[in-house]
Amino acid sequence: MKVTFNINFHTVWGQKLCVVGSIPELGAWEPALAKEMSYKGDGNWQLELEVTSPVRDIEYRYFLSVNDKQIFEEWEKNHQVFFIGQADQYTLYDYWQVRPANLAFYSSAFTKSLFAHPCNTHERVVKSGKRLTIKISVPRVEKNQRVAITGNQECLGNWHPDKALILSCDTFPVWHIDLDAGDISYPLEYKFLICDDQQQPLYWEEDENRVLNLPPQQVGETAIVSGLYFRDNLPLWRCAGSVIPVFSLRSEKSFGVGDLGDLRMLVDWARKTRQRVIQVLPMNDTTTTHTCTDSYPYSAISIYALHPMYISLSDLDVETHGRVSLRDPEKAAFFARKQAELNGLDAVDYEQAVRYKLEYCREYFRQEGEAILSTRGYKEFFVQNEPWLMPYAAYCYLRDTYRTSDFTQWKENSVFDKNSIRELCSATGKAYPEISFLYFLQYILHTQFKGVSDYARKNGIVLKGDLPIGVNRTSVEAWMEPKYFNMNGQAGAPPDDFSVNGQNWGFPTYNWDTMEKDNFSWWKKRFRKLEDYFDCFRIDHILGFFRIWEVPLDYVQGLCGHFNPALPLTPNEIEQYGLSFNEARLTTPHINREFLPELFGDQTEEVIGTFLAQSSSHHFVLKSFCDTQRKVEALFAGKTDEASLRIKKGLFAIANEVLFLRDPREPDKFHPRISASQSYLYRELSATDRYAFDQLYWNFFYHRHNEFWKARAFSRLTPLVGSTNMLVCGEDLGMIPESVPDVMNKLQIFSLEIERMPKTPQREFTDLYNLPYHSVCTTSTHDMTPLRSWWKEDRAKTQRYYNNVLGRAGDAPEECTADIAEQIVSNHLATASMLTIIPMQDWFAMDDSVKRKDYEAERINIPSVSNHYWRYRMHITLEKLIEADSLNNKITELIKNSGRK
């Protein structure tokens, strides 16, 4: 079979065009084996290829090379040609594919959910044996709309819209039409239009008519024109949705904690209220201690495994989508009582809910496990997921056997060995009963989640996931693939509105150089797993792809961290700013005696005698037994009295008293300490030294790294964003480098916009009327107080917001009333952001008959509390919420009036 590739692309001397593709004749995607095209003049390139491989289709892509090195390639979406009928010759006329300005519409959020089209084909008889196929990308087509074509010849209806031909969409968002080339005389003038289900024209594409002028075809030849894009000028498409952790959902069927059955019911509510997106928090397994500290959803022990607490007990029989009751009536009655007891609680009792749900699953597994593990569905799941499933199950077994998730304590299993793990998981081994139960749990979770995901897509609802920036330092991945992690550092965040001392998440940082060597395969596998369930996702702390805040292991707080990668300063560079670099004075924690009463009050003398050593006539340093925050934390473990807590806090503060931090990789270089102007040591500087330090600090944190971090982010995010079909959003809050918006804009990663966290330093509140279209707008996040609590935090700020933003006169009321909440939500819905996603608590705030009386119980997380207990749960069941017409009608009207779909 002969395939001829044609493309028009203007190059300069020395540049060549190549084709790489899915078949051996095109290098099987290996650029070094790609085929070089011949230049035919006037920007036209051609490649004639004899295809002998027995294939039904080819995917391919063009790229530009110089001296056999690829320098530029098409957008990540490949060209594709299907071989049909008896044709033995295919001539392809392609247009270079560029990244479209409306990239979001090509994501699975639209192609599989919002605009998903049935696989419709419109076969047409080609009597002459000369087939012309025209393909065009038209992603923004509602489910009740179709793409049509008409033109200046009889075969295309002679410009009569009612005679326009409907295109097929079996590869949506690419539409195509097969024409009989024998009926066409060139040049052919034509244009595309959008019709409704009844083939009534809705609108035409923009700009001038298209013209096609091809050489004559031979009998048995198929000519294919591809790479066209529909030209529209439609109003911005926008929609609304809700965000809530799945564990926070409540229904009559759940078991003390939200589950996948509840998520399915939330889809029904979203559809009823005209919403199109449901955003959740991470749902990966986080079990390290079997205590409430495991409730932190961003500390995954596996990037693949789901948390067992999300199993819907009422849908355990995945074959019939129902539950087979426990045969033992006493046990059935026991679990029914536990369910009622846990469902009656105001908040999630994490330990009890997980414990009894797992006990129920064990009973069910004893009863039905053998039959389930013998099903075809389970066997297929196991084969597809074995590379991560077996190590995960072994990890859980060893964690519980050794009673610690710290794999360095697992004796002969402290270092991961594939053969040993396979032997441990052998079906004939003593561990298999527990191992197989863990397999069963993940199979049930996967099957239930896939069911919910398919149900959401069918109902036009996008499920939006959350990708944590880090993983637990004792996770399966850290055990299996330690080469990817730096275990000597702790990931966190610099100080912000959430935490004045910064945040220390405890996660290991990444060895990005190692990850880059295998083209970020670890991250790509994470993305692919998310695609099993989600069509949109949020990259938690996307700034981590630019640089991560790395905290030394000796520190508990995040204040004495530094950015990695970074460009630390040499002593000579520091002194060029006019600051004399006294290394011992500026890098060793110490405190002037005059400041001690501020830290310790009437306990000052006791602290001096017990914890401090005098280093000069006025200064003290911490004694060796308490000279790091980790040592201090251990000294005060379990002490909760007010005096101990104050001393602990004061000693932590002294440990932070430096102006420069030594770089762990280049010990002769230094980082200025973040928020150093708030330190006691800074107060001791002379006015001249303060000025010098301020200049150095400003340049270091806001200028020095801009291009450096931009290059790093592009090298990491470009291949990752290109590897997924999901709509990609980023959480770009906090200390944002100047380069972040540029990178996100070019890659069309949606930003996160919050009114009370403006990204413009001069503003107190974000200007909602000028938000970027490619963004997610929301009233608050899980790390913030919901609207009603925020209203009471700062009375003066609330008053300014009431008068200047809401435009209301007089004194602001003490409470965020329902009508105020409604106005705030309405303002967010009116923005240009494509997605406005409102936290469930803020929807509730709009209706007095629905909202919770105790507004303080609506907080999900307090970032400054490292061991916060994540236990927020809706106060109303989903069954009652679906029937809450007062609130639901209000939400529906607000969304409709905002022009959101």
Automatic annotation (TrEMBL):
Its EC number is 2.4.1.25. It is found in: Cytoplasm. Keywords: Carbohydrate metabolism, Cytoplasm, Glycosyltransferase, Transferase. Gene3D superfamilies: Glycosidases, Immunoglobulins. It catalyses: Transfers a segment of a (1->4)-alpha-D-glucan to a new position in an acceptor, which may be glucose or a (1->4)-alpha-D-glucan. It is an enzyme of class 2 (transferase). Residues 1-98, 124-239 form the CBM20 domain. The keyword Glycosyltransferase applies. InterPro entries: Carb-bd-like_fold (IPR013784), CBM20 (IPR002044), CBM20_DPE2_2 (IPR034841), GH (IPR017853), Glyco_hydro_77 (IPR003385), Ig-like_fold (IPR013783). Belongs to the disproportionating enzyme family. This is 4-alpha-glucanotransferase. It comes from Parabacteroides hominis.
